[in-house]
Write a structure and sequence with these properties.
single chain, Rossmann fold, 2 domains, 6-stranded parallel beta sheet
Length: 211
């Protein structure tokens, strides 16, 4: 894969959990990744774990206390609408899982007059591309109103659904739900189109495009 070839990503908290998983996926898709974390030993382990030759170890081995760092704000405007009481549909393709997982965590952690049902579809080409499933399952156990549905598109499905993210959107329950879509631009555009053709309201569909 090289969808992110030539892109540069700075991932904070990348010594474990979603940060580490995101770094691995970004590297697998060709990005040049800089990682930060609080503990030197854990960062060293993360650099070895990520591998691939594209992760910069500059922040691990060369940056010293007092060195200036300039980190840009996260790209995009999609954030969790924690004021809403509507149920939620999330559709993630590939590394698009990372921002949607953060949105799910934000919704779960926000005060709400009712428990909002959240359905999170995570689509990938192959089983090996489905990452962070153990942590997602732990989130399901901690928040019983969350349902995680993994799917693969390019090989026979084993214990997961089969289909692309737009195909999953064609089957998903969306009525009166806040809808969040994340992944490659072409996937987002096609998924949003499928949902609108099925009657989803524009103002309830949230996504960011790189272009």
């Amino acid at each position: 894969m090289s969808r992110l070839k030539g892109k540069i990503a700075v991932i904070t908290g990348a010594n474990s959990g979603i940060g580490l998983a995101s770094a691995k996926r970004f590297v697998a898709e060709g990005a040049h990744v800089y990682i930060t974390g609080r503990r030197q030993e854990e960062l060293d382990k993360a650099v070895r774990a990520i591998g691939g030759g594209l992760v910069s170890s500059v922040l691990v081995h060369q940056v010293r206390a007092g060195d200036p760092l300039v980190l840009g704000a996260p790209a995009g405007t999609m954030t969790a609408d924690t004021r809403s009481s509507r149920d939620v549909l999330c559709l993630a393709g590939g590394t698009g899982l990372a921002p949607l997982k953060a949105i799910v965590e934000g919704i779960i952690g926000a005060p709400s007059p009712r428990h909002r049902e959240i359905v999170l579809y995570h689509g990938a080409r192959r089983h090996q591309d489905l990452y962070d499933l153990a942590e997602l399952r732990a989130m399901e156990l901690a928040y019983p109103w969350l349902q995680v549905i993994p799917a693969v598109a390019d090989e026979p499905a084993r214990d997961v659904m089969s289909g692309t993210v737009p195909e999953l959107a064609a089957k998903a329950t969306f009525a009166e739900r806040d809808i969040y879509i994340s992944g490659p631009d072409h996937m987002i555009v096609k998924t949003a189109r499928v949902l609108k053709e099925r009657g989803a309201q524009d103002h309830l569909i949230h996504y960011d495009l790189e272009a």
